[in-house]
């Protein structure tokens, strides 16, 4: 298959894919991969296969094609192709929750001396790295990466990247419980979709609606949460987007749990659990098991709650997800207090505070914890964040966290 024919077949596959004929598109692209003698064409078709498998939640296949793409990029001896292939490798590992590998591949991308195209990819690299740091609950580094990605988006007038970063920032602020910002950023993403997204994939609209639904639920606006989640789920079903379907089912279950309708929540959690397991989203599985645990606690089935916690703890330890561990210790503390098991209670209180210290989830000005309840937060240029009220009270005196880090250990 020559260069022109390769190009035609790739376009044919794209047309099928955009018409929701995914399996036909995959067959066309696989034929190109088998028969094309054009390395640049093979590189492009591998990019199409990587994107398609990512959206279907076939993350192991996504990784397999990313590895092949790196070999093709080396054959082409082009730094832009190599940077793009390492970014796809980073994204594949991010989807599989291999966060340390993601960070490592992202750093490889950023260290490459490419041309303008490589520089334009740096925003996407920063976003992927930020998502990985967030998965590891390293919040300052995650925020630093998201802010870099946002700067790249603004400098390159890349509205699609800006939309994705806003969704990640929504997730970031949801985790540290500044629900005002958790809603603001996906609303901003939805505005970008409305203003610029006429030719974009509908997945951007679905993504922004999902993150809005999560924030609305946290704010107790359950009817709004349900509306946004239903819209997101509708698009996810139309496009066969399994990862988003799993997240929407989780959100539906959480909404029903917030209404204390446990009997309706449980089947949604089960459906989400099934898809999360199928696609390999271990971070999502932790969230599902946390929801299931809380349902058992509502029903006062404490031993069943502890069984769910045990499964979630194994996953969180395997991923290095410190926030997940903190939440699990908090739930254990409540359970063992109810059961009046003092030794186990003390053990989880100690572990809870160790997690808080490790993640630096406290305000460096007032010393009170961050992420325990809904609070307005503000980040300084160094990406350390504090209670907004503390910054307003203390004024611009520089960052106390950075000052602490700059003191040599011998002087502490």
TrEMBL record:
Name assigned to this protein: 43 kDa receptor-associated protein of the synapse
Taxonomically, the superkingdom here is Eukaryota
In alphabetical order, the GO MF annotations are: acetylcholine receptor binding; protein-membrane adaptor activity; zinc ion binding
Q: How does it sit in the membrane?
A: Peripheral membrane protein
Q: Which gene encodes it?
A: Rapsn
Q: Please state which protein family the record places this protein in.
A: Belongs to the RAPsyn family.
The answer to whether UniProt assigns keyword Lipoprotein to this entry is: yes
User: What is the role of the protein in this entry?
Assistant: Postsynaptic protein required for clustering of nicotinic acetylcholine receptors (nAChRs) at the neuromuscular junction. It may link the receptor to the underlying postsynaptic cytoskeleton, possibly by direct association with actin or spectrin.
Keywords from the named record: Cell membrane, Cytoplasm, Cytoskeleton, Lipoprotein, Membrane, Metal-binding, Myristate, Phosphoprotein, Postsynaptic cell membrane, Repeat, Synapse, TPR repeat, Zinc, Zinc-finger
> Which Gene Ontology cellular component annotation is one that this UniProt entry carries?
cytoplasm
RING-type domain: which residues? Answer: 363-403
Q: Where does the secretion signal sit in this chain?
A: none
What are the subcellular locations of this protein? Cytoplasm, Cytoskeleton; Postsynaptic cell membrane
Pfam families in UniProt = Rapsyn_N, TPR_8, zf-RING_2
Q: Name one GO biological process term.
A: positive regulation of neuromuscular synaptic transmission
Q: Where are the TPR repeats?
A: 123-156
CDD domains listed in its UniProt record = RING-H2_Rapsyn
